[in-house]
Amino acid sequence: MQAIVLDAPGRPLRAVELPDPIPAPGQALLRVRACGICRTDLHLRDGELDPGHLPLVLGHQIVGEVLAADAAGTHAVGARVGVPWLGWTCGACRYCRSDRENLCVRARFTGRDVDGGYAELAAADARFCFPLPPEDASPDLQVAPLLCGGLIGYRALRMAGDAERIGLYGFGSAAHLICQVAVHEGREVCAFTRAGDAAGQAFARELGAVWAGASGEAPPEPLDAALIFAPAGPLVPAALKALAPGGTVVCAGIHMSDIPSFRYEDLWRERSIRSVANLTREDGRAFLELAPRIPVRTTVTTYPLAQAEQALADLRAGAFEGSAVLVP
After folding, report:
1. Do 167 and 266 reside in the same domain of the chain?
2. Which of 162, 225, 296, 307 could form a disulfide with 303 if both were Cys (CB 3.0 to 4.6 A apart)?
3. What values do phi and psi take at 100, rounded to 5?
């Protein structure tokens, strides 16, 4: 099969021919129909996160067709499934036994510990493959970004509780998806982008944001919650300053640069800071059921598999709106 591999952090990805994967017990063999590009892929490529093994096939927003089912027949041959970042859990640790499998101490992650979807074929634990509706109701290119950006955004939004006014810091793949969910739920959304990003701010307003501006600006009214998707630690104290008393800052990325010191006064009055750690399968089922009912629409830029390195460079540069998807 054709695949794109990372040989070492900091090196460009390269195209190779690899043997077709042989599914282990409990895994299904998938033909990759589409794979979303995620900022976590960029962190792995740039050496900001450690890969589980090398060479590594990145990619954890996989829309695939089952070519060979697992022994239990969890998914029928020909079924269309979605594969997220969380690729395996032990089921035995105290986190797994208390409905917190996203904190599993032995978890394995798609495109880090297990080869992912920057390839024509992939093997994935059948338990962590989500059934998808027919393609005419949920096209491959639309659903791929939901499998990480959408899911992480959904978990972050749930952590915000019943916040009425929400700020989204970093208006990329996850934020443009969860903005639609928040607006659907009747919340007010304020979008924060890089300074001077007039196109990104206009994009946010098109999706229902009541205000859009630079991340250093103050919103028209204090926020009840702030969801930070950009991997920039300095946004945490900036978001705290924008919060109303009792508000919450949710850091929604797998990786973030160091958070600078800030005054206790900015945290005082029962403000809080939380982080999102991956997702649970229940998150996935709930969000994938909700998304078509809203409906959540993804703005997608597509790349052929061979241009994976260019897609990551464009993500790094903020060269596209919404999400990017590789198509083998």
Report:
1. yes
2. 307
3. -125, 50
